[in-house]
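[Q] Does anyone have a clean structure-token version of this?
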Amino acid sequence: MKRDELVRYLDELLESGRFRDYCPNGLQVEGVRDVRRIVAGVTASQALIDAAIERGADTLLVHHGWFWRGEDGRVTGFRKARMQSLLKHDINLVAYHLPLDGHPELGNNAQLAKCCGWSIEGRFGEQDLGCHGRVSAPCILSDLVRSISTQLRRQPLAIGDDSRRIERIAWCSGGAQGYFEEAVALGVDAYLSGEISEHSVHLARESGVAFIAAGHHATERFGVRALASHLAEHLGLECEFVDIDNPV
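[A] Here you go.
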């Protein structure tokens, strides 16, 4: 498949044009024109680039790409090393950030709900990125945390009463701790995101709404993995998801 055809397909599928983002979505670094083998992962780190090179990939598909707003734009140090690796091997770098959080089927939040067995009843937060709904069956917080730990293969940090009954939950993957107050206003019993801020601990204690910090990386593995599977199934491309361990 031609690279530009793939990017157009992804742009349309993920509706990238409707999102106000902190980085460019789509093709970030140009490589070969013909795409045959894709390696997908969460972040375009040197370790993931090396994995793509080892597997003979011509395209790297990620959630966290490069060229973030406010970041130093000089190509030096680790930035030079990363880019040099891609350019030397003529590998395309394709990245989708908020579009891959918000997609109703393949997005991180939709896939997180699918993994945990939660129903989606509505959206909230900036650009409707967050979701709210219900857990599969009412439970107490400690049991919910145990289930999340099993599904995400990571022990979450939970702030709240372990015996609190949980029925309604809101969530937004990654660094969406800033949506906690809005989630509290929805009347949910718990809110899950990847990270937690200092002030969120106090809000959890004072509101009674539990905050579950389940890991930025851990909550954002699902979207790009689902997208890679979609491309393999619908476009016949060879796609492999490579999970580079990240404890955060």
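[Q] Thanks! Anything notable?
[A] The radius of gyration is 19 Å.
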